[in-house]
C-alpha cells in the first residue's frame, strides 16, 4: 500500500462524518423575476428538500422541478441565479440542456444566510459565488491564484471539515464546494492543484487550476483527496 493511500485511509477513519451537507433542510425562498424577450414575470422561487418551485401568477411560467429534473443550481451573483435542467433547449439549440435564469427583485439580494440554507436543502450539485456566513472547522488555508485564459483572480484556498472554499475579492470569483460537488482533485506539481467540479457551463464539469503562492501545508492534499473520494453511504434496497 502506498504512503498516500495509507494516509488517506487514516484520514477517512477520523473524518467519516465530514461528508456533504444533509439534504434535509428548511424551505428557503426569494422574490425573483424571470426575464422574457419582452418584459418578465414576477414571483417567488421556493427551494425545499423535495425540489424547486417558481410561484407566479403568470400561469405560463409557474413551474415545479423535482431534483431528478435538475442538474445543478447556480448562484451566479448576489442578484442572479439559474437552474440547469435535463430538459432540451429545443430545435434552436439541439442537444443542449435548458437553463432557466432568475433575477432577484430590485432592493433584495442573495445573502450568505440564503446560500447556507440552499446548501443545506439541496442534494443536487450547487455552484455559489456567495459564500455562506458560517461553515465547519477550518483545517488548512493557502494563498492561491485561479488561472484562467483571459484574467485570473487571487485569493485563498480554505479547506474546512465539510467544504473546500476559494475566497477572492474579485467579483464572481469566489466558490464554495461541498465535497459531494467535487468530481476529483489532482496535485499537478508542488505549486499547482486542479479541482474538477460539477459546475458545468459548456459541459457537465469544469476544471479549476490553482497556482499555489506558498508551499502546500503538509496534509492539505491528502486530507482533501480523502474527503472528496470518501465512499458514498450504502442505501437500503427499496424493494419492489
Description:
- There is one protein chain.
- Strand 3 and strand 4 form a beta hairpin.
- This protein is mainly beta and 240 residues long.
- The longest helix has 12 residues, at 3-14.
- It is globular.
- Helix 1 crosses helix 3.
- The chain has two domains: 3-19 and 130-228, Pleckstrin-homology domain (PH domain)/Phosphotyrosine-binding domain (PTB) (PH-domain like); 28-122, PH-domain like.
- Mean pLDDT is 83; it is low at 1-24.
- 13% of the residues lie in helices and 42% in strands.
The percentage of residues in β strands lies in 35-45%
Average of pLDDT: 83
Could you state the CATH homologous superfamily of the largest domain?
Pleckstrin-homology domain (PH domain)/Phosphotyrosine-binding domain (PTB)
The dominant shape is: globular
| The number of domains | 2
- CATH domain topology of the largest domain: PH-domain like
Tally of DSSP helical segments: 3
Q: Helix and strand succession? A: HEEEEEEEHEEEEEEEEH
CATH class categorisation of the largest domain: Mainly Beta
Rg computed from alpha carbons, rounded to a whole number of angstroms: 19 Å
Described by strand count, sense and barrel closure, the largest sheet is: 8 strands, mixed
The poorly predicted ranges are 1-24
What structural category arises from helix and sheet content? mainly beta
Order of adjacent strands in the largest pleated sheet: 4-3-2-1-7-6-5-8
Number of E-state strands: 15
Amino acid at each position: 500500500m502506498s504512503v498516500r493511500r495509507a494516509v488517506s485511509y487514516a484520514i477517512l477513519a477520523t473524518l467519516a462524518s465530514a461528508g456533504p451537507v444533509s439534504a434535509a433542510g428548511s424551505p428557503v425562498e426569494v422574490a425573483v423575476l424571470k426575464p422574457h424577450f419582452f418584459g418578465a414575470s414576477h414571483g417567488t422561487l421556493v427551494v425545499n428538500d423535495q425540489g424547486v418551485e417558481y410561484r407566479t401568477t403568470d400561469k405560463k411560467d409557474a413551474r415545479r422541478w423535482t431534483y431528478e429534473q435538475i442538474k445543478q443550481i447556480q448562484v451566479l451573483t448576489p442578484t442572479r441565479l439559474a437552474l440547469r435542467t435535463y430538459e432540451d433547449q429545443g430545435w434552436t439549440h439541439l442537444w443542449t440542456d435548458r437553463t432557466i435564469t432568475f433575477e432577484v427583485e430590485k432592493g433584495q439580494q442573495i445573502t450568505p444566510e440564503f446560500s447556507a440554507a440552499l446548501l443545506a436543502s439541496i442534494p443536487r450539485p450547487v455552484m455559489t459565488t456567495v459564500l455562506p456566513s458560517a461553515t465547519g472547522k477550518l483545517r488548512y488555508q493557502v494563498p492561491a491564484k485561479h488561472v484562467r485564459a483571459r484574467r485570473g483572480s487571487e485569493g485563498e484556498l480554505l479547506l474546512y471539515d465539510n467544504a473546500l472554499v476559494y475566497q477572492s475579492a474579485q467579483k464572481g470569483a469566489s466558490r464554495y464546494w461541498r465535497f459531494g460537488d467535487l468530481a476529483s482533485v489532482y496535485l499537478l506539481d508542488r505549486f499547482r492543484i486542479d479541482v474538477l467540479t460539477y459546475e458545468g457551463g459548456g459541459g457537465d464539469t469544469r476544471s479549476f487550476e490553482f497556482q499555489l503562492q506558498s508551499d502546500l501545508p503538509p496534509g492539505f492534499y491528502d486530507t482533501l483527496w480523502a474527503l472528496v473520494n470518501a465512499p458514498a453511504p450504502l442505501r437500503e434496497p427499496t424493494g419492489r
